[in-house]
């Protein structure tokens, strides 16, 4: 065991986790234990790894998490981690702007009410408490004065669904209804935004305003745990999957339904989401190719004071292949999303250079798993979009506290980094290795390398105005997930 991993394990043992850690030795499975207790099957029946479902797992989800016996549908998880960004020298004060870099922390805890609720109704409800976010990460004059990143405790991406099976002539049909708070969380494959790789990212990285894959589309996390949606779906002959949904602004009045992040500004009315996929399973192999998308209207960007409203059209193509055996398994996923935004003429010269913009993102991942205990993934990512100096460009004007435009400025921005040429273009690659030494313990080392970041091989540190190389953002993320 490495000194870094030993340090992290010692830190966890001294924290509030000893009771949870003791419980982890009781059952022999991984992923959410409540599902294993309900189905009386090992988690390997439904999961290739923590974030990726097998054909059996997709069917379990499709049928509303209702297969099996009635059990108390509760599970808990906790995560400890170390996040290290390669070089912080360009920051005005790394201890403030890149707080807790290279320090072991107890990152978060989760409570799940997941599984079978009634005969044909089940769900996956997840409440998250972020310990990394309890104290303000940004705490000095200028950009990030005393700002917290989201709520400390909130209802994370969750869903409740009702499903039924029927026979229509010679066709086997599953149909159902789903209520959720994150577009695409209800999807069956590990390719759509809410379920796509990486299955976990650093809370600190998100707080630093980096974003592991750089700028992403609105539906790729921008509405997660921020909305309320109702969808209707069907699967025909385990081959054709179709779903339509509509999302609305979420304004919960109960603390247990608190949202993550700033109040979203999704306009009420029609914000449709769609999904169409072709699926085939033959022996040890399964294949999927599909398309999905969402049409959204935002009143403004909640992270940018004085920002313009926008009409977003996101549409994507995705594919997945799995070869699964009890020992050697392989999987591959690719997702391409294009976003077109109409900001309107009034935004020109204020928060955007032009009335419209676009962004294209591409992600791909290849995984090898041995015996559901050891695994390695390699991944690549790229984003390319419209040049927009008003939004992405660094503003060096420190004499005007009334600057309101764009995501990058020295007074109202929550971003640590800005583009030096107005471009959001970002690309890179990386790997992830995981190890499950005993049931309910999942250890992951994730490494990300950047070829370009926000427009090229260099960009601007928003805290100091200094130039920063893309490779300086190379990120190491080591975490331990414990569950019961």
Description:
- There is one protein chain.
- This protein is mainly beta and 484 residues long.
- The protein is 11% helix and 42% strand.
- It has eight helices and 22 strands.
- It has helices at residues 3-14, 18-23, 33-39, 55-62, 94-97, 203-207, 218-222, 389-392, and strands spanning 47-49, 52-53, 74-85, 105-118, 121-130, 153-155, 159-168, 171-180, 227-236, 240-249, 272-282, 285-298, 310-323, 328-342, 356-370, 374-385, 417-418, 426-435, 441-452, 458-461, 467-469, 475-483.
- It has a 16-stranded antiparallel beta barrel with strand order 3-4-5-7-8-9-10-11-12-13-14-15-16-18-19-22. Strands 17-20-21 form a three-stranded antiparallel beta sheet, with no helix packed on it. The protein has a two-stranded antiparallel ribbon with strand order 1-2.
- The model is unreliable at 1-30 and 135-147 (pLDDT under 50).
Blueprint of the fold:
Blueprint: H1 3-14, H2 18-23, H3 33-39, E1 47-49, E2 52-53, H4 55-62, E3 74-85, H5 94-97, E4 105-118, E5 121-130, E6 153-155, E7 159-168, E8 171-180, H6 203-207, H7 218-222, E9 227-236, E10 240-249, E11 272-282, E12 285-298, E13 310-323, E14 328-342, E15 356-370, E16 374-385, H8 389-392, E17 417-418, E18 426-435, E19 441-452, E20 458-461, E21 467-469, E22 475-483
Antiparallel strand pairs: 1-2, 3-4, 3-22, 4-5, 5-6, 5-7, 7-8, 8-9, 9-10, 10-11, 11-12, 12-13, 13-14, 14-15, 15-16, 16-18, 17-20, 18-19, 19-22, 20-21
């Amino acid at each position: 065991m490495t000194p870094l991993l030993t340090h992290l394990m010692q830190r966890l043992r001294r924290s509030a986790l000893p009771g949870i850690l003791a419980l982890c030795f009781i059952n022999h499975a991984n992923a959410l234990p409540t599902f294993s207790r309900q189905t009386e099957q090992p988690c390997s029946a439904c999961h290739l790894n923590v974030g990726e479902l097998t054909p059996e797992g997709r069917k379990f989800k499709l049928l509303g998490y209702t297969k099996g016996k009635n059990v108390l549908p509760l599970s808990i998880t906790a995560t400890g981690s170390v996040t290290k960004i390669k070089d912080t020298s360009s920051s005005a004060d790394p201890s403030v702007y890149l707080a807790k870099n290279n320090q072991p922390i107890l990152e978060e805890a989760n409570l799940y009410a997941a599984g079978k609720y009634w005969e044909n109704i089940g769900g996956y409800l997840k409440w998250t408490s972020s310990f990394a976010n309890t104290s303000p990460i940004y705490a000095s004059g200028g950009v990030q004065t005393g700002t917290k990143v989201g709520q400390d405790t909130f209802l994370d991406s969750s869903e409740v669904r009702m499903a039924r099976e029927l026979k229509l002539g010679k066709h086997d049909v599953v149909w159902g209804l789903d209520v959720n708070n994150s577009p695409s969380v209800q999807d069956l494959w590990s390719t759509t935004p809410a379920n796509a790789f990486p299955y976990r990212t650093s809370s600190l990285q998100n707080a630093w305003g980096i974003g592991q894959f750089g700028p992403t589309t609105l539906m790729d996390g921008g509405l997660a745990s921020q909305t309320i949606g109702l969808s209707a779906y069907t699967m025909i002959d385990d081959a054709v999957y179709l779903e339509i949904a509509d999302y609305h602004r979420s304004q919960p009045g109960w603390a247990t339904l608190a949202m993550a992040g700033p109040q979203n500004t999704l306009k009420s009315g029609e914000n449709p989401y769609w999904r169409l996929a072709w699926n085939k399973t033959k022996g040890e192999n399964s294949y999927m190719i599909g398309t999905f998308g969402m049409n959204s209207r935002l009143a403004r960007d909640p992270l940018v004071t004085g920002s313009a409203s926008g009409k977003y059209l996101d549409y994507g193509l995705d594919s997945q292949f799995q070869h699964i055996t009890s020992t050697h398994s392989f999987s591959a996923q690719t997702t391409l999303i294009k976003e077109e935004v109409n900001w309107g003429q009034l935004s020109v010269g204020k928060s955007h250079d032009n009335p419209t913009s676009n962004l294209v993102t591409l992600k791909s991942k290849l995984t090898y798993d041995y015996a559901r205990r050891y695994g390695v993934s390699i991944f690549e990512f790229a984003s390319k979009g419209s040049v927009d100096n008003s939004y992405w460009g660094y503003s060096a004007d420190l004499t005007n506290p009334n600057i309101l435009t764009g995501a990058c400025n020295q007074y109202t921005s929550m971003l640590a980094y800005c583009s030096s040429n107005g471009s959001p273009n970002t690309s890179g690659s990386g790997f992830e290795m995981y190890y499950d030494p005993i049931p309910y313990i999942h250890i992951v080392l994730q490494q990300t390398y950047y070829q370009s970041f926000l427009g090229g091989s260099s960009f601007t540190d928003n805290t100091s105005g200094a130039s920063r190389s893309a490779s300086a953002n190379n990120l190491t993320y080591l975490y331990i997930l414990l569950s019961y």
